[in-house]
Structure formats: C-alpha cells, structure tokens
Specification:
The complex is a heterodimer of chains A (about 1050) and B (about 450).
Chain A: H1 2-26, E1 34-35, E2 42-44, E3 52-61, E4 65-75, E5 78-82, E6 85-90, E7 137-140, E8 148-157, E9 164-173, E10 178-182, E11 188-190, E12 212-213, E13 215-217, E14 225-226, H2 231-234, E15 240-243, E16 253-261, E17 265-274, E18 278-282, E19 285-287, E20 312-314, H3 320-323, E21 339-344, E22 352-360, E23 372-381, E24 386-390, E25 396-397, E26 402-403, E27 405-409, E28 418-425, H4 426-453, H5 459-475, H6 489-506, H7 509-512, H8 518-521, H9 532-542, H10 554-577, H11 587-602, E29 606-608, E30 611-612, H12 617-630, H13 634-659, H14 663-675, H15 677-682, H16 689-708, H17 713-729, H18 736-747, H19 753-781, H20 818-834, H21 837-856, H22 869-883, H23 888-901, H24 904-908, H25 919-929, E31 935-939, H26 943-949, E32 955-957, E33 966-969, E34 972-975, E35 981-983, H27 986-995, E36 998-1004, H28 1005-1009, H29 1023-1032, E37 1034-1039, E38 1042-1048
Parallel strand pairs in A: 20-28, 21-28, 31-32, 31-36, 32-35
Antiparallel strand pairs in A: 1-14, 2-13, 3-8, 3-11, 4-7, 4-9, 5-6, 5-8, 9-10, 11-12, 15-23, 15-27, 16-22, 16-25, 17-21, 17-23, 18-19, 18-22, 23-24, 25-26, 29-30, 33-34, 36-38, 37-38
Helix pairs in contact in A: 1-4, 1-5, 1-6, 5-6, 5-23, 10-13, 10-14, 11-12, 11-26, 13-14, 13-16, 13-22, 14-22, 16-17, 16-18, 17-19, 18-21, 20-22, 21-22, 22-23
Chain B: E1 4-6, E2 13-15, H1 22-29, H2 43-65, H3 80-92, H4 96-107, H5 109-116, H6 118-135, H7 140-143, H8 183-189, H9 194-199, H10 202-216, H11 223-260, H12 263-276, H13 284-296, H14 302-314, H15 318-331, H16 337-355, H17 359-372, H18 377-390, H19 396-407, H20 415-432, H21 436-445
Antiparallel strand pairs in B: 1-2
Helix pairs in contact in B: 2-3, 2-10, 3-4, 4-10, 4-11, 5-6, 11-12, 12-13, 13-14, 14-15, 14-16, 15-16, 16-17, 17-18, 18-19, 18-20, 19-20, 20-21
The chains are: A alpha+beta (about 1050), B mainly alpha (about 450).
C-alpha cells in the first residue's frame, strides 16, 4: 500500500512538473523574448572614464513628421529628453531591486508585479548591475518633434565607469523622406555637460556645438533581445478615423468588423486611438484599456486596487458589447480621451475569423469633438506571412444600424503612442492549461508504467524539473528571468528531463546500478543491501576518492576534505578581498573608520568634541589595534572583516562535519557561504556585522557542543565567552540570549549543582559586563538631541512593527533565499522525524532567533538577521541531504540549482562595479580641486566621510533635518561626527552661498534629493533645494549617485538670488 | 544521582521523580501543581523549565485580565472573550498538542477580529493611516523639518491629503495569477498588518508569550508533536485564506456585471462579497464603488449620496459638495465607513484651505472634522498649525492633550516626533503669552518624550 501511494505521489508530482513546463512552453500567456539586433554602433563620451555621460544630437526637420520612433539601449541606464522635455527614462537602481523597476514606459516591463520583499532601499549584494540594455526601450517621438531644430538628449549613467549608448530609430517625414536616427559620430557627447548661462543642456537653444563627437566603442557583452514587435512603433499608423452617422455624445457607440487570419499568429499587435473612453474586444474578450488614474470616480471600469490592469488578465465578455449598447452605463467616462494605446494581442487572436468590436463611451461634456476612433493591427504568422487590418470602409456601426463613416486618414495630431502591454484572457489560459495538464497526466502515467517495468529512475526528471521551477521562481525579479521568457526555454528543459528519464531506462543496470522498481525501493533499501555496482557509483558520488584504490593516493583520500576546505576558504577570501580597495565606503563605514582611527591614534573612539562612538567596542578596538600595527590604510580597515568571513566559512564546515556528522554538508555550506552575495558584500565592510556573525556562530557551535551533542563544561564556558564577544561586537546581539536560554531548557542535561552554580555565576558576570557596556554606550555615545525626528535608530525594544519580517530571512531581496528555503521547508518534516539533536537544536535557534530579533529589535533591516544566515544555510544543506539521503547525486543537483538561483556570475562580474554610492570619488575630486578658503558642504549623513577624505567639512546639508545626528553647541546646531553646521533649509543654503566666494556642495542623490533625473520630485523634502542647486550652481563632477556642485561668486553669473527681471 | 531515562522525542535525558515521599507525590498529583514536579530532581534545566511554565501560566492569567486590542472610540472586539477563555483553559491543560493548538488559535486572533469586528479593525487602520501620513518620508513631519524651527510654523505646508481607508489589500487577483510576491499580501489578509500591530494591547502579547512558554517547556515537547502542530497550522491557515479567494471571485464577477450594465446584479454580488469578507465593507474605495453603482441605479443611499457629493466636488462645485457632506456627516454613524469617507473629504478640503492661507475657514472645517472624529490625528495636527497661525493659542493645549491621549493607543515609537511637534506648538503659545519659563519647559518636554 505504501509503495502504491508513493508511486501515485511520484506520478502526480512528475505530472504536475511536466504539465507546468509544457504549459509554459506552449501557452506562456506572457511576454516572449526574441533575439534582436540594433542597426547602430555603440558610442561613448571621449576621455577618461566617468560614471555618467550626456549625449546630444540636433536634428533639423524640413517639414512635418509622419512617424518617428527610437529604440534606446543605455548601459546601464538612460534618460531621453526631446527639446527639453523628458520623454522616457530607466534610472540606475540597486541590483537588489527588481529588473526594470523604475522604467517610465511601464508597458514594456517584462514583469510588472511587486517584489517579493518590498523595500525602498534594500541592502546591496556583491552583484554586478542589470544589463538592462539587452532589452532596448521603444519610444514614439512623433508628437515630440517639430519642423525646424530639434534636439535629442540622452543622459546615461553607469556603475562600471563606462556609460555607453546605442540608439536606432527613424523619422519619417510627411513628404516620404526618412531620416535615420542612429548612434554614431553625429552625436555629441560629454561626461559633464558644461553650463551655458542659464540654459540647461537639454534645451533646444543650448550651444552644444563645442562638444566633442561621441566615440565608437565596443558593445557590451551579451545578446540584445526584444519583447515587442518593432513594427508597432516603426510603421506609420494606417487607420482612418471612423465616426457614427448621427452620433450623439450622450450615447455609447458600437463599431465592429471581422478580420480573417489564415494561420496561427506568432506575433500580433493592435493600435487604437480614440478621442474618448472606449472598450475594445477581440473575439469576445475585452482588451482592458489603460486606467485613467486611481481613485478617479468617473472611471466606469472597476478599479478595485488592481495595480496595473493594463497587463495580464482580461475579462471574458461574451457579447457584452453588442447587447448592451443601450444598457445603463455606470457613469459617463472621459477617461480615454486622447489615448493612443498599443497592445500585444497575440493570445486573443485565432486562426480564421476574428471579430473586433470597439465601443466609444458616452460623455456629458458638450465641447467634445464628435466621437471617433482609428485602429490598425498586424499579425505575423509563423511562416512570416503578414495579415493586416485597419479602420476604414466596411466597419459596421451597430449602435445606429449602419456603416461607419470614414472621415479621413488618422495621420496627424495624434497623441503619443503608449505601449500598454500584453493582453490575454484568464479563461483562455485556464482552458489551455487544463487541457495540457490532463494530456500530460495521461502521458506521464503511461511513462511511469513503462518506467517501472524498465526500472528507470524517475527521480532524476523530477529533480531536474523541480530545479528548473525553483530557478525560474528565484530569478523572477532579475535580468536572468529573460532566459525563461525565450520561446523554447521550457522545451529544452522538458527535453533534458525526458532524456534523463530515457537514459535511466536504457542504460544497463550494471552501469547505473539501478534495481527493479528503483523509485519504490531505493528509499527502503539500505546501502549494504544495494547491488555492488550501485554501491560503487553511490560511493563515487559521496566520496570520489574512494574509487581509487592505489596506495599512492591513500594520503590524498584521507585528506581530501581539508584540501577541499582550503580551496573553499581561499575562494571565500578572494571574493571578499578582490575588490576591497576599489569599493567606496558607505557613511556607516566611515563612522566606524573614524572611531577606529581615533582608537589607533589616541586609544579612545572619539568622533568629535565630546562625542564618542562607544558601541561595538570589541570590533573597533580590535581593528584599531590592527590599524595601529599596520598603518592607516583601507587594507588594515577592511581585512579584519575578510578574516572573520573566512573564519565563518571554516566554522560552517565544523557545523556540518562535527555537529551534523557530514563533511559534505560542511563543505557545501562553507562553499555556499563563500559565494553568498550578501555575505560576500558584508564580508569586507568596515563594520562589525561579519565579526558579530562569526562570534554568534561560534556561540551556537559551543552551545551545541556544551549542551546538545556533548555536555562538557569547557564548551559551556567557551560558549559564554563567545556570546560575550558577540554582544561586544554588536550590542543588539543580546537577543541571542533568548534563543540560548530556550535551547538550554530544551536540550541541556543535568549537571552537579556546584557546576551549575559556577556556570550561573559566570553567566551573571557576563550579563553585568554587557550591562556596563550598554550603560557606557548610552552615556558616552549618545548626545542630547535638539528635537525629535521620525527617523529611528534601531534599539532593543519589544515591538511588532513589521510582522512580515518574520519571513524576511527566508526570502531576502531579489528572492535570493527562496529556493533553499523551499527545500528546507520540504525537508522539515523529515528533519523533525529524524530527531537528530544537533539539527533540532539548530532549528530551534534559527526559528527562535528570527522571532526574538524581529520582536526585540526596532527597524526592519536585514542586517539584524545577518547572524542567522549561516545557520539557515547549513540547515538548508542538511535538509537537502536528508531529502536525498539515498541519492546524493540528486542532492548535488539540487544544491547546484540553489547555486544558480544566486546568480554567481554576477558576483564575479561585480568587481569593477560600484556597489555603493561613490562618495569616495566625489570627495577625492573636491580634495584635488578645493582651494584654501573654499567652504565645503556635504549632504547628510556624510560629514564623517568628508572629514576623513578631505580633512575638513564646514556644513552639513540636512534636508529634512534628522535630530538624532545633531546637537546644539554655542547656539549652533552641529552634526555629531564632524561638527559641521546643519543647513536645514533653502534660506540657510542661500545665506552660505552669499557668505562664501566659493562653496563646494556634494550631494548624494539617493539620500537627499531623490530626484535622479531631470524631473524634480516635488513630493519629497528638499525638492526646492534641488532646483536651487541645479539652476544656480555649476555641476563639476559626477560619480555614482553623487553630484559635486560649485558655487563660485567670481564667475559673475550669480550675483543675486532674485531671479525676476 | 537519580535514575535517568531517555526522552523518547528529543533523545535527551528526562528525569524521573525518584523516590519522593508520599506527601510530595500526593502534592504533585494535583494537576495545577504538576508544573513544579521537576523541581526536586531535574537540576537547573528542569528548574528553568518549571520557572518557564510558571511564567507561562502567569502570563496567561494576566492576559485573561488585560486588554487585547484597543482602538480609541471603540469597544474591544467581542471575540476577545473567547480567546481569554482559551487562555484560562490552557492553564489547566498539560497536553502538548492542546498547548500547540492554543498557540495556533492565538495566531488567528487578528484574523478573528477582521471577520467579527471589521469596524474596530477599520478604526485601527484609519488611525494608522493618519499617523503614517504624518511621519512617512514625504509626510508632514518630515517635510516640515526644514521650516518649523526657522519660521515658527508659518511656512509649513500640510502636504498630504488623506487616502481612502483600507484594512486589507482587496483580493482582486485570481489563483491563476498567484506568485510568490503575493505572500506578504496573504499575511495581510490574515491580519498580520500594521493596523493590528499598532493597536495591539498587552493581553495578546502576554497570551502569546504564555502559550509559547507552556508549549516550549511542556514535558512532552517533541519533534513529532511539532510536526503535527505544523501540519495543523498549515491546514488552518490555508482554510483561513479561503474567504479571501471567494471574495476575490465575487469582486471580479461584480466588475464583469457592471461592465455589462447589469448593475443590480453587480450590486447584489458586491453585497455577497461583503458578507463573505466583512472587512471589505469597511474599505473606503469599496464604499465609493458601491456608491457609484447605487447612484447609477438612482438609489438614495448613504454611499450614493457620498458619490454624488464627490462628483460635485470634481465638477468644481466645492461649496455645494461641502454642504452636502457636512449635512451627511451630522447623521452618519460614528466610526462607520461613511463617516470616515466624509471626514476624509472634508479634511482634504480643510487642508487645501489651510495651505491657501484661508486659516479661519480651515479652522472651522477642521473643528467640524474633529467634532465628528475626535481622534483624528491628521486633523488635530493641521488644526494646531492653523491655531498657531491664527493666534488662537488657548486652543493648543486641549488639542495637544487629545493627541497625546489618542497616541496612547498606537504602539509605534515614531509617535514621539508628532507629539514633540505638539509640544513645540505649546512652547510657542507660552512664549507668545510671555511665559518664557513655561515655554522653556514645553520645549524641553518636546525632547524628553518617553520611547
């Protein structure tokens, strides 16, 4: 019975996986990416590398434009302005945010859903950025170009210091002439656009002739792709305006036609322009138009919180349009006025006759033009044959029972084309997938019957397909997801799975070691009972050196784990130290560096004046000692973290080898830790997180040795020491004590009362010392604030601010942990069933650690869960090992899949990428160019950075003012780290400009102003300051997300702030 | 050394009672004293476990006597009494699985509030929205940081106008469009959201702590029992999401029907959706959608009236809209969705007036808002600024006191920044009145607010 149930379960799982793969392959119902090549060369600004470049091209048009479009690929971002107006943009974002997240043309996003772990500013990983240029963005320019002089401006920013641009487009004149727009030598480029009076470089009359010509450069590595058929922008609109005879504005109007397509379309699009709201339906399925804006009551469409109803599911509206032309309309709708919407309708069209219906909404407005619309569409069949349709003669107007009136070609004064995205129908998807699933189930049942007869291994295809699903799920928010959006990706995966099943069926048993009914018996039989050949093959997997019998490698066999561990530790060290000196420091690192340098010089962690940075004394004094020994350099500051990272990897091996009794588990956990992108990033920062993680892990290790798998008093005292070190490395680690207490109650064995008493006294002493540390922190590190701001420093307080943080570790940003967490979840019942004390203790500490960290530490940062990542890792690997105890090769396959979900190639590509905002380069520029007497202002909280890099800082631009970082002295509000005077509003900034001949202002665009592009975001504080800086000061330098402005009164341009003439 | 036997679940050692005297065995044979049984023989771990059990019992006992979920102006949800009863029952049970069940049941408390007292949940969400708008990154406290100490509030703009109140994300996606990123949305559906955590009182926290302590220190604690509890929890939580999917289906159907023009059926379907998931009946956007439907059907209902008033507002007939809303506000049920939506509209109007320099008009509107909704933090804050500008300094102290009282119900530590602003307003009032010592005291108070 058990065997039959197991067989049924395996069959169902396999059928489900195969069905999913088949459905994704045959009926994806989502964007499909196809290879594409732009017919243009890549260009860059001549000169030294920089983080941004500005490209400019003047186009003089002899007449009116009929159609103009452009496709832009900017490495790594772009912002297109036409005649001074921003048209399209893809800002540079963190690699841990979803791919194309801030793209202005939302319809062209390959995925519009929310991120799994939504955070405005997620922590960075040691990852290279997205290659967003692989999917060029199409932009319609018809509306933006005018006869005469036009200027196309594209700003490109890069995290690698090599901003590049590739552009292809066309301007088709009404005369028939075509002006190609391609990136090339006719484009001018500059790293920093020079000022020309009050003119912005994007304006038409800006004198950009002096700029150097853009230089051709090699294209970036990778293939270009597209999700939309270029013709949708490239081809001039072919529709004619249609009106109804005797149209009345207050009545809905219905237009209808039929379109014959003699083959299944491979690609299809439809363009519709209307002068009022409309409903569009193809074959009874409505194509949802773009929303008119959330909260607009007059929208008749139900807007119940659907974030982007343009894309995705449409309603099945069988005959809704014709039967209800006279039905009561919910409300009159002006929503679609002047809309020109483009849809991908491939999944709504069918072979044969297709019925297209357009209903124009009624309106109460009396000044409207008569209701009219125009439409054209194109379908490209698999054989390349093209079918087209356009509004024109032959359309019926059923609302009034006659043929629609054609009023002329719709080829002028059209609104800007907006690509709305792919339209599909949920019911169609359900039907297609259901039929496919049923078919697949039949096939799989047959295959299972054959497989059982032929003793095939069905677990291999299951693991292969599961791995593919895990990888796809984990990659959804990344550029890598494009791989699964190609037309045949799932076909290849299915083929691999089928091939693996066939190999299992046809390879002779002696080679594969299969036995009868492998899937049924493998988990039952013991290794000793398995055939010899299989034992050999399994042994080869579990220990490859065991297959060699020669005496010459006997020593190697004995030592192989150590060799492997050495290589892993070397890899771990190399990944952390490789870019150690090229990555800029973040403000927190500068704060720690300030305390460390002070300790090295004076023995006290003094920041400024009477302010001391007494938190994390163990870390700061340890690194301070190293700096005192080896000098004040970045290596001495960052290498201790690297050392602790390597030590953590080594400790993870001990967890596997000694606590969980599997060297493979230890090695795999150490290897995964080595390439973990968040650990690799945190593993070289001048912060205490890595040291805290190491000591926390050491605490858990000694806890398990002293209370779980052994009961030695020595380990118990060592645990106390390690716990003390953890708390001194990061005071918030005090929460670990709750987990240890729980573990003690659950797992500790009785000792003599004297021993217990001694241990309790020692623990009490540790707690007293910790209390002293906290008291010193409270009295010497904090200053009396001048006010209270809504910004909160993390602290130890019972809270339940974000219950969702309880799940954060299992997902983290960009779904990094998703795959291994799923495997851990699946293996959890087995782990509990095994009753392995060490595994249970680690599970208890992991889950209780998550709970206590979440409810006792305010703030929602992943960094506070950082100490738990190694535990999660080793338990995840242990879970995989438990799941595949008899099939270690499959376990290796699953772990390989987990590695793939981490995109390790991005780790190796990241060394030339600026991971964090590059304050170091901006400050270095000012250090080189500042004269004696110049004043320096930097945006908060970077005064300590300026103090260390430049040696002085005068002003701290803090908008909004966060009082936690300031205190009042001598009547002035100054910052705690460097004593810089707080500049907290525009008035004060203007005063300082007036008071100094030259004033350098360094702005972190991510922290302060929040307007990365040309358009200022007025909803954020500091917007007015941003405008003032842009219009009155000169931009001198740019590094990644940093701007350096100079106020120079001697130039004579800005003598007054009164702008009115 | 007393004899030891291995724990069948954890594989650890478990201690027998040994040869205790008869009276000791009799003492421990009573169920309520069993928690102390290991004291005599188990060593420090058992002592701590026993202490944990005692603490757990104490927590549950205090929880049974404490408030669990408090929203200003609303009584505690009736379902709380059931959970209090569960706590009492848990004290007298020793079975591990029952304690696990208690823990599981307590986790369903927010969901129970959502289903049985949606009005209370809506009140909590409404309060949280107001606070969030004051302290969010583009909120009023943040945006006024530049100005408040430089120009004494004169140039502060109350920038954010209130958004529709929402307790949970409306279930508008189908199972076919499920993806992992919806996971947190489902957590919101189960009530683990800001409205719950912010208005949470001591009772639930203590009950959870007590249940967790009893669960973890249970003598029969073991992995198999945990596995059973995990399976039960998964099933229960999966079942708890069913109403949301059903409601989502009904909403989609109502949308289809309304698009086809079958408005009556659409309205009926909406009612069914609200019956399946009462929380959406308290949703502001849902109420307005309902108003749109009822208006099209020429009904004279509160929702339709509000919808018509909003249309008047959109058409530019602001005075007429405001008069209609004020009239409706007088008869609106306190704490109901209608009142919240009316208050929202009037508050937005008052904020516009304040930012336009029409201070006295703004004061009148804000006072009418506060009369209807006395705990409205946003209106309170805006009125304080308006009073500072208009020189009505005597009104500031009662407003600050009311704000302080309202904030007692919110757990967020960020409330300190809003309360500090209220104290600064008071300091300004005292300074204007010539009481410099009192002004200094208020100024100091603004920085000494407890966390």
């Amino acid at each position: 019975m058990s065997i039959r149930i197991r067989l049924a379960a395996v069959t169902l799982v396999l059928a489900g996986l195969v069905a999913y793969a088949a459905c994704r392959w045959w009926f994806p119902f989502r964007a499909v990416v196809r290879p594409w090549r732009m017919n243009a060369e890549w260009i860059a600004a001549p000169g030294a590398s920089s983080s941004s470049s500005s490209f400019r091209r003047v186009v003089t048009l002899p007449g009116e434009v009929r159609n103009a479009w452009i496709a832009i690929a900017g490495a790594d971002s772009f912002e297109l302005s036409v005649n001074g107006r921003t048209v399209s943009s893809l800002p540079l974002t963190r690699a841990t945010l979803p791919f194309q997240r801030s793209l202005s043309d939302r319809g062209q996003q390959v995925r519009a859903g929310p991120p799994m772990l939504p955070r405005q500013r997620p922590r960075e990983y040691q990852w290279s950025g997205f290659r967003s240029w692989r999917l060029p963005i199409f932009v319609d320019l018809t509306r933006d170009l005018a006869p005469g002089r036009n200027v196309l401006c594209i700003a490109v920013a890069s995290r690698t210091g090599s901003p590049r641009l590739c552009v292809e487009g066309e301007i088709e004149m009404r005369s028939g002439a075509v002006i190609p727009v391609r990136s090339g030598s006719e484009w001018k480029a500059a790293a920093i656009p020079p000022r020309a009076g009050d003119l912005d470089w994007t304006q038409t009359n800006y004198p950009g002739e002096d700029w150097a010509r853009a230089a051709p450069v090699a294209p970036p590595r990778g293939e270009m792709l597209r999700t939309i058929e270029p013709g949708i922008f490239r081809e001039p609109f072919a529709g004619h305006w249609l009106r109804a005879p005797m149209a009345a504005a207050e009545r809905p109007l219905l237009f209808e036609t039929s379109w014959r397509i003699d083959g299944r379309p491979g690609e299809a699009w439809l363009r519709l322009v209307a002068n009022r709201g409309y409903d569009l339906a193809i074959n009874g399925r409505s194509v949802r138009p773009p929303p008119g804006g959330a909260g607009k009551l007059r929208d008749g469409v139900w807007l119940l919180d659907s974030p982007d109803p343009r894309r995705g599911e449409t309603d099945e509206v069988e005959s809704i349009l014709e039967e209800e032309s006279g039905a009561t309309r919910l409300v009159e709708d002006d929503r679609g006025v002047a809309a020109f919407d483009l849809y991908d309708v491939r999944w709504l069209l069918q072979r044969g006759e297709n019925r297209i219906v357009v209903r124009l909404h009624p309106t109460k407005e009396s000044l409207h033009w008569e209701p009219q619309f125009a439409l054209d569409a194109k379908a490209i069949r698999a054989d390349g044959w093209v079918d087209r349709i356009a509004s024109g003669p032959g359309w019926r107007c059923d609302g009034v029972g006659s043929e629609a009136i054609v009023t002329g070609a719709a080829d002028s004064d059209l609104p800007r084309k907006i690509y709305a995205g792919l339209a599909w129908n949920a019911a169609d998807k359900f039907r297609s997938w259901l039929v496919t699933a049923l078919g697949v189930l039949c096939v799989v049942i047959g295959a299972v019957v054959i497989a059982v007869r032929r003793s095939a291994v069905l677990l291999v295809p299951i693991v292969l397909l599961s791995s593919a699903v895990l990888i796809e799920s984990a990659w959804v928010e990344r550029e890598e997801s494009l791989l699964f959006l190609t037309a045949n990706a799932w076909g290849w995966i299915l083929a691999c799975a089928a091939l693996s099943a066939l190999l299992g069926a046809f390879i002779p048993k002696t080679e594969l070691g299969s036995t009868k009914n492998t899937i049924l018996t493998k988990t039952e039989e013991s290794e000793s009972e398995a055939p010899l050949a299989r034992r050999v093959s399994l042994s080869a997997v579990t220990n490859p050196f065991r297959v060699f019998r020669g005496p010459s490698i006997a020593a190697l066999r004995a030592q192989w784990p150590r060799f492997a561990l050495c290589w892993i530790l070397l890899l771990c060290a190399w990944l952390r130290a490789r870019a150690l000196d090229s990555q800029p420091l973040d403000p927190d690192e500068y704060a720690s560096a300030q305390a460390i340098l002070s300790i090295a010089r004076t023995g006290a962690p003094q920041l400024f004046d009477t302010v001391f940075y007494t938190r994390s004394p163990l870390y700061h004094y340890l690194v301070g000692g190293i700096v005192a020994l080896f000098g004040e350099n970045i290596w001495a500051l960052r290498l201790p973290s690297v050392f602790f990272g390597v030590a953590t990897a080594a400790l993870l091996y001990l967890f596997g080898a000694r606590l969980l009794r599997s060297r493979w588990t230890g090695l795999a956990a150490a290897a995964l830790f080595a390439i973990h992108p968040f650990a690799a990033f945190s593993g070289y920062l001048v912060r205490f997180y890595q040291q805290q993680q190491f000591f926390a892990l050491l605490t858990v290790y000694f806890f398990c040795r002293g209370f779980v798998v052994g009961q030695g008093m020595r380990e118990r005292y060592l645990m106390l020491a390690a716990f003390f070190a953890t708390v001194l490395s990061q005071e918030l680690s005090l929460t670990i004590g709750f987990s240890l207490l729980l573990g003690y109650v659950l797992f500790a064995e009785r000792k003599a009362w004297q021993s217990e008493a001694r241990f309790a006294v020692a623990a009490g002493c540790v707690l007293v010392l910790v209390f002293l540390d906290l008291v010193i922190f409270q009295t010497r590190c904090l200053t009396r604030v001048d006010g209270i701001s809504p910004s909160l420093e993390p602290t130890l307080t019972l809270n339940l601010e974000s219950p969702s943080n309880l799940l954060m570790l299992f997902m983290v940003f960009s779904r990094l942990h998703l795959a291994l967490s799923i495997l851990l979840l699946v293996s959890l019942p087995l782990l509990l069933r095994q009753r392995d004390r060490a595994a249970l203790a680690l599970l208890a500490i992991l889950f209780s650690g998550i709970v206590v960290t979440t409810i006792f530490v305010t703030g929602s940062g992943l960094r506070y869960h950082y100490w738990l990542i190694p535990l999660w890792l080793v338990l995840g690997i242990h879970g995989v090992r438990t799941l595949t105890a008899r099939q270690p090769a499959l376990g290796a396959l699953l772990i390989a899949a987990v590695v793939l979900t981490w995109s390790p190639w991005r780790l190796f590509d990241s060394f030339d990428t600026k991971i964090q905002t590059d304050s170091t380069a901006a400050l270095a520029y000012v250090r080189r160019n500042a004269r004696a007497g110049d004043a320096i202002m930097v945006s908060a909280p970077h005064t300590q950075s300026a103090l260390l890099e430049i040696g002085r800082i005068d002003y701290d631009l803090a908008i909004p003012l966060l009082h936690d970082f300031f205190y009042r002295k001598d009547g002035r509000l100054i910052d705690r780290n460097a004593g810089a005077e707080a500049i907290r509003n525009l008035d004060m900034l203007q005063e300082k400009c007036a008071a100094h001949e030259r004033l350098w202002v360094l702005i972190n665009r991510e922290d302060l102003l929040r307007s990365p592009g040309q358009d200022i975001r007025w909803s954020f504080p500091g917007a007015r300051t941003d405008l003032f800086l842009r219009t009155n000061l000169e931009l001198m330098f740019r590094s990644y997300l940093w701007d350096v402005f100079l106020w120079d009164a001697a130039t004579g341009r800005f003598h007054t702030f009164r702008r009115a003439r | 050394m007393k004899p030891r036997i291995p724990n069948p679940e954890l594989g650890s050692t478990e201690y027998t009672e040994g040869e205790n005297p008869e009276w000791v065995r009799t003492f421990f044979s009573f169920r309520v004293f069993r928690v102390f049984r290991g004291l005599t023989s188990g060593g420090l771990p058992r002592l701590l476990a026993a202490a944990g059990r005692v603490a757990g019992v104490a927590c549950l006992a205090i929880a049974a006597l404490s408030h669990w979920f408090l929203v200003p102006g609303a009584i505690e949800p009736g379902v709380t009494w059931i959970f209090r009863g569960l706590c009492v029952a848990a004290v007298v049970t020793t079975r591990f699985t029952r304690r696990g069940a208690l823990l599981l049941a307590l986790l369903l408390y927010p969901s129970a509030i959502l289903h049985t007292s949606p009005g209370v949940a809506a009140g909590a969400a409404w309060l949280w929205h107001q606070h969030d708008q004051l302290t969010g990154y583009a909120g009023d406290i943040f945006t006024s940081q530049e100005m408040r100490d430089a120009t004494w509030q004169q140039r502060i703009v109350v920038c954010d106008t209130p958004i529709p109140n929402r307790i949970i994300p409306l279930p508008v996606w189908s199972a076919g469009s499920f993806e992992w990123s919806r996971f947190f949305e489902i957590a919101d559906w189960l009530g683990f959201s800001a409205w719950f955590s912010q208005c949470l009182a001591r009772g639930w926290v203590l009950a959870m702590a007590g249940a967790a302590l009893l669960f973890l220190t249970a003598p029969s604690f073991g992995s198999r029992s945990i596995a059973r509890c995990l399976v039960a929890a998964s099933v229960v939580f999966a079942l708890a999401t069913l109403p949301f999917f059903l409601c989502g289906h009904l909403l989609a159907r109502a949308r289809d029907l309304s698009q086809r023009g079958h408005l009556t059926e659409a309205l009926t379907t909406l009612d069914r959706a609200a019956r399946v998931l009462p929380a959406i009946g308290e949703d502001g956007a849902f109420f307005l959608q309902r108003g749109a439907l009822e208006n099209a059907l020429h009904f004279t209902t509160p929702a339709a009236e509000l919808f018509r008033a909003r249309q008047l507002e959109e058409d530019g007939d602001r005075q007429q809209a405001q008069a209609a809303m004020l009239a409706a506000l007088r008869v609106a049920e306190p704490g109901g969705v209608r009142q919240r939506e009316l208050v929202r509209s009037l508050l937005a109007d008052a904020i516009d007036a304040l930012n336009s320099g029409q201070t006295h008009s703004a004061i009148a509107s804000l006072e009418s808002v506060l009369n209807a909704d006395p705990c409205n933090l946003k209106a309170n804050y805006a009125l304080q600024i308006a009073c500072v500008r208009a020189g009505r300094l005597e009104a500031l102290r009662p407003l600050a006191a009311r704000m302080r009282e309202t904030y007692r119900f919110l757990n967020t530590p960020m409330k300190r920044s809003v309360l500090a602003a209220a104290h600064e307003h008071l300091a300004f009032a005292e300074l204007e009145n010539g009481a410099s010592a009192a002004a200094l005291a208020e100024w100091r108070n603004s920085k000494r607010l407890p966390r």
